[in-house]
Write a structure and sequence with these properties.
Length: 465
């Protein structure tokens, strides 16, 4: 039976994490995971909701060593929790939030104990069977209902070892990973927790969100240091004008990154920026330095195959032959160019465009801080069943009329959004994605406001217009 060690750190004193400014040694991490494992309730499925990245990692280790399966949805809405209960009736929630209201049996992370007094002679790293089901992860829901995907330990470990090689963080130095993405999201799971455990590097427990907090977290981390983030956070950081501490590497994923944004981030940080391509279904499979090239390079062992307009990924750590939800142009055995998602295409009145193009035109209007087009299902109680193109826009200084006029100069009139929702902020999740259900809820609020107060224009925390 093939097995893979839980940690790749070579000694008891190797640093696994930094929490509250304190370095946590490998022997302490393993001791805390063992203590937690002994106290967990009997259910086999664990919703690991710990916001502290270190506690999340300890919970993951405790689950792996006891044969438990981590459930990792990207959100914890009541609807998602109901779906989890149907999938795993024995599931319980591991949380470090005393105010947690998730409707599952809750097990609170134990209060911190004194650091372990175990010496290096007691350093024993658990070895996990490669075929052990380690996690069930879920798609983000940006194009519909989140779907579950099962991940075995061996394939997960293989994926992040390949990632560490492609990122260049296995050169003998000890890198510190700082993440703005939650550990529960597939990207954060792989690139801030698993990759550190499997490459003898370390991660910081905190998840900074605001620009000043991100800069402070980077400054507090030992070098060499890596910021694992998203295009949304990069744009916010650049717009905020905060001083960036020196970085050794930037990593971005979750949405396509423009060359302009990549170059601006590299200039400000003084570090190269590498963009990862992947999906919940496949894990990470390719990488590029966006400021220098459009082409992605596949991870070792991963292959692509085109068949009747559909591209499939297989080999390496990919669990099975998996269709990709993107329009891909193969340019060699290991390289490809990404042309957008297959679901990104829009066809209205016989004319074609893409959400990527429409969003770029919308966000290019002076005064627009954020905006997105989406498909709006037509009158839900009526007989029309029409699907309409809508848009939600954050533009405090602009009116709907002026926005539509600007859009008329940029896109074909058939793609003008109906409705156009003026909002205070978009309902982006922790990785910057926009779940379709959240956008539909905005449109529902808008329709209700129009029905109750015809002709009125409102803005709310999410906003109506």
């Amino acid at each position: 039976m093939d097995v893979t060690a839980l940690l790749s750190h070579p000694s008891a004193d190797s640093i696994v994490a930094y929490r509250g400014g304190r370095a946590v040694r490998a022997v302490e991490f393993l001791a805390e995971a063992e203590r937690l494992a002994q106290s967990l309730p009997p259910g086999r499925h664990v919703l690991n909701a710990c916001a502290d990245r270190y506690r999340f990692a300890v919970g993951l280790a405790a689950s792996l060593t006891t044969g438990r399966v981590s459930l990792l949805p990207s959100t914890h809405t009541p609807e998602v929790i109901r779906h989890l209960i149907q999938l795993a009736p024995d599931a319980f929630c591991l949380t470090d939030d005393e105010a947690c209201a998730i409707e599952l049996p809750r097990f609170h992370y134990p209060d911190a104990t004194a650091p372990s007094s175990l010496d290096s002679g007691a350093f024993r790293v658990p070895r996990i069977p490669d075929d052990q089901l380690a996690a069930i992860v879920f798609t983000s829901g940006s194009t519909g209902t989140p779907l579950p995907y099962r991940k075995t330990w061996g394939r997960l470990a293989g994926c992040v070892r390949a990632e560490a090689h492609e990122l260049g963080i296995v050169d003998g130095r000890s890198f510190t990973l700082i993440g703005t993405v939650p550990a529960q999201h597939m990207y954060g799971f792989e690139s801030t927790v698993l990759v550190a455990l499997q490459s003898a590097n370390s991660f910081t427990a905190e998840r900074p969100f605001y620009p000043a907090d991100i800069a402070a977290a980077v400054a507090a981390a030992p070098r060499p240091r890596v910021l694992v983030t998203t295009p949304v956070h990069l744009r916010t950081l650049l717009a905020a004008g905060v001083e960036w501490p020196a970085l050794d590497l930037l990593v971005s994923a979750t949405a396509p990154l423009s060359r302009e944004l990549a170059c601006a981030a590299e200039t400000r940080s003084g570090a190269p920026l590498l963009e990862i391509y992947g999906s919940t279904e496949t894990g990470q499979i390719a990488i590029r330095r966006t400021g220098e090239t459009e082409a992605f390079r596949l991870f070792r062992g991963v292959k692509l195959r085109a068949d009747n307009g559909q591209t499939y990924a297989y080999g390496g750590h990919v669990e099975q032959m998996t269709p990709l939800c993107d329009v891909i142009e193969l340019s060699g055995e290991r390289e490809f160019t990404l042309h957008g998602r297959t679901a990104d295409l829009v066809n209205v009145a016989g004319k074609r465009s893409s959400f990527g193009y429409l969003n770029a035109q919308l966000n290019g209007i002076p005064g627009v801080l954020d905006g997105a087009f989406f498909l709006r299902e037509g009158d839900r109680g009526g007989a029309t069943g029409i699907t309409r193109l809508a848009a939600a826009v954050v533009a405090p200084t602009l009116s709907a009329a002026s926005l539509l006029q600007s859009l008329r100069l940029r896109i074909d009139p058939v793609f003008l959004p109906r409705p156009l929702l003026l909002v205070a902020r978009l309902p982006r999740n922790a990785t910057g994605k926009l779940p379709h259900q959240a956008l539909e809820a905005l449109a529902d609020q808008h329709a209700l406001a129009q029905a109750e107060e015809p002709g009125a224009t409102k803005r709310s925390p999410h906003g109506n217009s």
